[in-house]
Write a structure and sequence with these properties.
Elements (H helix, E strand, L loop, with lengths): L18 E7 L6 H11 L4 E6 L6 H11 L3 E5 L6 H14 L4 E4 L11 H9 L10 E5 L6 E3 L3 H18 L11 E4 H4 L14 H11 L4 E5 L1 E3 L10 H23 L10
Parallel strand pairs: 1-2, 1-4, 2-3, 5-8, 6-9
Antiparallel strand pairs: 4-7, 5-7
The structure holds guanosine-5'-triphosphate (GTP) and magnesium ion.
Magnesium ion binds next to loops.
Length: 270
């Protein structure tokens, strides 16, 4: 675990790595210009992909103009699909297709501050003595040093409930399974069959952890303080939260069924 925040110098980033920061956006015109500037301040060597679902507030228009003068920025504007999960998958697939070493997801509303990027990336590079580097680094609110600022108590309870439920039911070896601030090793993501995903929305973040755990990924966690958005509007709805509960439930049952279907070991005891 890495707990100190690095300075905003590019010397803190492993320059030989090709890194993509993928941001799913819907109506984030107010946040995106500042966010892009802050990402490049803390991590100047990364590229940014914005996956926007044709937001009516002009998010895509801003990106379209900006990518003409900023070669590190690319827009993927989706007109046929919608949903945070499928937008995130589009970003992960883009990273695989374009041979990035790492792909990082973060929200556009400054809840995941770019100041954490150097440490998140450093976490991918470090390994415990005699061990292997991790495949996924998670920004975690639920380990010492992490936290949440600005959420009402009801939202905190909902998040705690989803985390306890998903971690317990799916046996996920992490402390925070519903946050999207993560860095994935792209090579490891090639093992994941994204076409099998049930979720196109917020449950994607638990679902991918479930698939990664099945594939025996190694996880690391960085404490982060999640700060509630100041600009723009939340897109999560009660319906979306209930859908997440349902999908997590289904995943757990699918696991039991596949275990029950495994041939029994009938060999005699030695
Ligand atoms: N492309 C795309 N992005 C989305 C969609 N829904 C949400 N997002 C983005 O996903 C990120 C997280 O969404 P938020 O609305 O901030 O969800 P949240 O963080 O759970 O809720 P608040 O912080 O309360 O707003 C933001 O960058 C959104 O713009 C969607 O349908 N498509
Ligand atoms: Mg948010």
């Amino acid at each position: 675990m890495v707990s100190e925040i690095a300075s905003d110098s590019d010397e803190t980033l492993p320059s030989q790595r090709k890194i993509l920061v993928s941001i799913a956006t819907y109506n984030e015109r107010e946040n995106l210009p500042n966010l892009v500037a802050e990402i490049f301040r803390f991590a100047p060597t990364v590229d940014i992909l914005v996956v926007d679902d044709n937001s009516p507030d002009g998010t895509s228009d801003w990106c379209r103009q900006q990518q003409e003068i900023e070669p590190r920025l690319t827009l993927l504007c989706r007109t046929q699909e919608k949903g945070l999960g499928s937008a995130t998958i589009a970003g992960l697939k883009y990273a695989i297709q374009h041979n990035y070493d790492y792909v990082i997801n973060l929200d556009a509303d400054f809840s995941h501050h770019p100041k954490y990027l150097p440490d998140l990336i450093a976490g991918m590079e470090s390994a415990p003595p005699g061990g292997q580097p991790v495949d996924v680094m998670l920004g975690s609110r639920y380990i010492p040093g992490g936290g949440i600022e600005g959420w009402p108590i009801s939202r905190k309870i909902m998040s705690k409930f989803i985390n306890a439920y998903a971690i317990g039911w799916l046996r996920l070896p992490v402390s925070d399974c519903s946050g999207s601030f993560r860095c994935y090793r792209t090579e490891f993501l090639k093992r994941i069959e994204f076409d099998q995903f049930r979720s196109t929305g917020y449950a994607f973040f638990e679902e991918i952890l479930w698939f990664l755990t099945q594939a025996q990924a190694r996880f690391g966690e960085l404490p982060i303080v999640f700060v509630n958005r100041e600009k723009g509007h939340s897109k999560i709805t009660l319906q979306e939260a209930l859908r997440a509960v349902w999908i997590i439930g289904q995943l757990g049952f699918a696991k039991f069924r596949s275990q029950a279907a495994l041939p029994q070991d009938t060999s005699p005891n030695p």
